[in-house]
Structures are given as C-alpha cells and as structure tokens.
Design brief:
Blueprint (H helix, E strand, L loop, with lengths): L2 H13 L2 E3 L2 H6 L5 E5 H5 E12 L25 H12 L5 H12 L9 E5 L3 E6 L2 E6 L1 H6 L8 H9 L3 E8 L7 E12 L3 H10 L3 E5 L4 H11 L6 E2 L7 H9 L5 E5 L5 H6 L2 E5 L4 H6 L2 E3 L6 H15 L2
Parallel strand pairs: 2-9, 2-11, 9-10, 11-12, 12-13
Antiparallel strand pairs: 1-13, 3-8, 4-5, 5-6, 6-7, 7-8
The protein binds adenosine-5'-diphosphate and magnesium ion.
The site of magnesium ion has 7 residues, from helix 3.
Subcellular location: Cell membrane
Family: Belongs to the cation transport ATPase (P-type) (TC 3.A.3) family. Type IB subfamily.
Protein name: P-type Cu(+) transporter
Length: about 325
C-alpha cells in the first residue's frame, strides 16, 4: 500500500480502538483465513465466580465401600463444605490465576478467614501445590493429583457434570503432615460468562468464509460447552493445551498453508501470538501478550476481529 493508504487505514483502525503495528501488518490481516480464539478472557469475560463446592465424603465416593479409617485422615477436622473451601482458598491465596481469585473471593464471601500459604508451587496448566496451615494442599486437574499419587477417580462423575455446564471444575486434595499420600477432599467449580459479543463475532466471521477455532488450557468438556454457546464446531476445538504447547498448536494448524490469526490475552498466549501469521491481543490483556502481538483490540470486543479485516481490505482496495 502507498504510505497515504496505510496512514488512512491506520487512522480508521485507531478510531475503532484497533491498533496495527505498522503498515505491513495492516496488509497481512486481509489474508487471514482462520481465526483461533483463546477462551478465557478472550471469548469469555475472564471474571470467574465460584459456583459449586462439593465435598466427597468416604461413604459417597462412588466406591460403595466405607472404611472407618478414612475419617482419621482429616485429623479431627469435620469434612464440611466450609472446611473444603477453607483448605482450597488457603492454597489459592498464593496464586494470581483468575481461578484462584474466584476461589479466594468465594471463600471470603462465605465468611471464611483466608490466610496466605507459606509456600506455593505453580504446576503450569494443571494447578497448584501449596504449603498451608492445613498441610500440603493440591488444587487443580486430575493430572495434577495423579502426579502426587492421589487417585482422582472418585470425583469423575461430579467433575463431568459440572464441566458439561461449561464450568471449570477442579479437585482439592490434602496431604496431612503425618501422612505419606494425599487424600481427595472434594470438587470446586468456577464459571466464567461468555462475552455478549462473542456469538455474533463468531457467526460474522464464519459467514465471511473464515474458519473459527478455539484453543484453551481448559478441559475438553468445558471447552466444547463454551464452543457450542458461541457457535464454534466441536472439531475446531483444541482443549487441554498446556501453555508451552499453544504455539505448536498454532504452527500445526498453519502447517497446511493456512494463515491464522491468533486472538488472546494472557501471558500463556504470547508464544502463540508470535507464531501466528497475525497475532492479536486484547487491550486488557497482559503486556507480554500485547508486545508479542501485531494487532491490539483496545475495546476487548471479539467482533473487532472482523472489523480489523474489513479495515485491512478497505485500505488495500483504495490503492488499486
Ligand atoms: P487458560 O488457557 O484457559 O487461560 P491455564 O493454562 O492458565 O488456562 O490453566 C489451564 C487449567 O489448569 C485450568 O483450566 C485449571 O483447570 C488448571 N489450573 C491452572 N491454574 C490453576 C489454579 N491456580 N487453581 C486451580 N486450577 C488451576
Ligand atoms: Mg486467556
């Protein structure tokens, strides 16, 4: 494009809060044929709320076998919803993940006095392990518990039900100081509302002939429930993607010559934004994501993806 056309396109974009990092980006955007959305904070609001607290009592753990020894592992604490939430929140208080913030806020709302853990270990894409007043606590995915030899299977049904509702469910386990292995205490779920613009944004892109995909670290069931709400086909969902694998998922999608725009907001998304033909960050996203991106959508509106493509096409049409 001529410098004048680029200036006009850049200005029109800016008037909609769409920032292109240079004229070459403005030209590239119209060639995008696939749009890959991150889920949390991109298609959803990214403001999680605690919705469910489910205690797994020994007699209801699904095995049908009640062992009298089971209760001794609670060190005299009665396993109530409040206790479960207290244990989880005292671990999550050390994490800055949106899930963690929802758990801590949910606990405080229910009058629980939450204290910070003495130590915290983030297990990327899987959850946390923390040293708390209640002993060592695990909060996260089934894989996390398995890593520490805690069997997550008694919670399978409960998790599946919550996930089909589009919620993110997580397991809570405790390793008491005097015990070798941990014990599964229960399940928590958080929900994140889909942005009101997401569904229209997806259908407008699809009407234009673009392929729309979803990539997330969240589990398959939750991802599919959200995909269904916004109109993304199940075969275009890539779930359970670890932070370090998001970029290779983008590369894989592009390996057959597709030109993908990755749209994301988190630190997790930065390598994928860099790997994509066009990386698009949301203005409310982390600085790392914005730096890695070619385009920034200041209004955080997924519908601005199509607007960005329109601006790019319009700019190039004028110079022909
Ligand atoms: P996303 O790609 O959706 O932004 P992340 O990669 O940050 O997600 O996390 C992926 C999954 O790991 C979450 O859906 C959750 O199951 C689990 N997880 C991550 N951090 C935490 C945490 N602090 N507490 C509980 N679960 C967590
Ligand atoms: Mg995100």
């Amino acid at each position: 494009a001529t410098p004048a056309a680029t200036m006009v396109g850049t200005a029109i974009g800016a008037s909609h809060g769409i920032l292109f990092k240079g004229g070459d980006v403005l030209e590239r955007v119209r060639d995008v044929d696939t749009v890959i959305f991150d889920k949390t904070g991109t298609l959803t609001k990214g403001e999680m709320t605690l919705t469910d607290v489910r205690v797994l009592r020994p007699e209801t753990d699904g095995s049908g076998v009640v062992s009298t020894d089971d209760t001794s592992e609670y060190e005299g604490d009665e396993l109530t919803e409040e206790f479960l939430l207290d244990v989880a929140a005292s671990a999550e208080a050390g994490s800055e993940h949106p899930i963690a913030e929802a758990v801590v806020e949910g606990a405080r709302d229910r009058g629980i006095d939450v204290s910070d853990p003495a130590a915290l270990q983030n297990v990327a894409g899987k959850g946390i392990r923390a040293r708390t007043d209640h002993g060592d606590v695990l909060v996260g995915k089934p894989e996390l518990l398995r890593e520490y030899d805690v069997d997550p299977s008694p919670a399978e049904e409960t998790m599946a039900t919550l996930e089909r509702e589009g919620k993110t469910a997580m397991l809570v386990a405790r390793v008491p100081d005097d015990a070798e292995t941990g014990r599964l205490l229960g399940v928590l779920a958080v929900a994140d509302e889909v942005k009101s613009e997401s569904q229209t944004a997806v259908s407008a892109l699809r009407e234009r002939g673009l392929t729309v995909m979803l990539v997330t670290g969240d589990n398959e069931r939750t991802a599919r429930a959200v995909a269904e709400q916004v109109g993304i086909d199940p075969e275009n969902v890539r779930a359970g993607v670890l932070p370090e694998d998001k970029a290779s998922v983008v590369e894989d999608i592009q390996s057959d010559g597709r030109r993908a725009m990755m749209v994301g907001d988190g630190v997790n998304d930065a390598p994928a934004l860099a790997a994509a033909f066009v990386g698009t960050a949301l203005g409310s996203g982390t600085d790392v994501a914005i730096e890695a991106a070619d385009v920034t959508l200041m209004r955080d509106d997924p519908a601005d993806v199509l607007r960005a493509i329109n601006v790019s096409e319009g700019t190039l049409a004028k110079i022909k």
